[in-house]
Amino acid sequence: MAEREKASGPPLLQSVRQLAATALGMAHTRLSLAGVELEEELQRLVVLLVMTLTALLFFALALLVLTFLVVFALDAERRVVALGIFGCVYLGLAVLFGWRVNLAVSQRPPLFSATLTELEKDRAALNSRSGAGTVHSPRADEEGG
Predict the structure, then answer these.
(1) What is the pLDDT of residue 28?
(2) Among 19, 79, 120, 136, fewest CB within 10 Å belongs to which?
(3) pLDDT digits (tens, 9 = 90+) for 85-114
(4) What would the pLDDT profile of 13-50 be if each residue is shown by its tens digit?
């Protein structure tokens, strides 16, 4: 029995090693999840960027052609006024859509939200198992709690 205890160490040390291995495994899983989320977000952003730029290119070409079609269909003395009106309309639309893009970016979910949720669950599970009180949470400070 003494040989077995020497080979594997005292029970407290075994428990600490087991706890460290479990914590390391949990950290590895959470970091893997964070990496997957980051890759997914990057792929989504690249696809959105390419699609947005392509749509903008064709939209600009269509507007250019339609603008010249309308301007050249008018009398020579009204062409300057028509170009001014088109310019103001395009400027107004650019401001409107710029505001909408800003709004959409500000309302997106935070990066790594699933990872943070899983880490909160892990901490709650560890607190309930150990019977310990509440552990200080930086996230609770951010949320006003």
Answers:
(1) 84
(2) 136
(3) 999 999 999 999 999 989 988 887 777 777
(4) 888 888 888 888 888 888 888 888 889 999 999 999 99
Asked whether 120 and 139 are in contact (CB, 8 A), the reply is yes
Please name the residue that has the structure tokens 């505001």.
Answer: 99
Distance between CA atoms of 129 and 125, rounded to whole angstroms? 6
Return the amino acid letter for 34: A
Give DSSP secondary structure letters for the chain: -HHHHHHH--HHHHHHHHHHHHHHHHHHHHHHHHHHHHHHHHHHHHHHHHHHHHHHHHHHHHHHHHHHHHHHHS-GGGHHHHHHHHHHHHHHHHHHHHHHHHHHHHTSPPTTHHHHHHHHHHHHHHHHHHT--PPP-HHHHHTT-
All residues at 6 or more sequence positions from 79 whose CB lies less than 8 Å from its CB, including other chains: 71, 72
- Tell whether the model's pLDDT for residue 141 goes beyond 90: no
